[in-house]
Amino acid sequence: xxxxxxxxxxxxxxxxxxxxxxxxxxxxxxxxxxxxxxxxxxxxxxxxxxxxxxxxxxxxxxxxxxxxxxxxxxxxxxxxxxxxxxxxxxxxxxxxxxxxxxxxxxxxxxxxxxxxxxxxxxxxxxxxxxxxxxxxxxxxxxxxxxxxxxxxxxxxxxxxxxxxxxxxxxxxxxxxxxxxxxxxxxxxxxxxxxxxxxxxxxxxxxxxxxxxxxxxxxxxxxxxxxxxxxxxxxxxx
Length: 237
Prior knowledge:
- By secondary structure, the protein is α/β, with parallel strands linked by helices.
- It contains eight helices and five strands; from the N terminus they run ααααβαβαβαββα.
């Protein structure tokens, strides 16, 4: 039989002078890692469309695969019913309140205040991204108007400006793309903006696509100050 000499701390603990040694955290950590791995495995098909799911017929359990197919078809049906915009709407200042502020009570409205100059690369980029996003997210309303026609005296240097409306209020403002990725901003970056403001769910199959380098940038860098375009012109300098 093997005997070990008690340490000084063991004696003090036995006498109740110091508290018992806390249990090792190793089993808890191991269990957390096991659960995380299990969740990752169970969610391995998240974000795949119907074609991608069909390609996995020989690799995945048929019942498990069918569950994801049914879920994806239900999502497609829901999105299809909600998709009523599917285009970029040109705005006129007299109709701004109706087409943006009032419309935002039923859906998210994204407004692009564009440059009046054809040489503004970022403005042209947002216009193109707006077109792609409008086709992809038909349940979100995307609008566009020249900044100086919307807000008299609005500085050209502040274009493009993106305004996000919901429930009659501006919930997000982005002045130029310098706090995103500038002229390198991608549709993935814009999709993250949609998720950040709540216009699109993070689990939305339309937004969960291939990862890109744009994932390094988060929506936390976006500005949070407020504008009141068209409905309440102020001086801008």
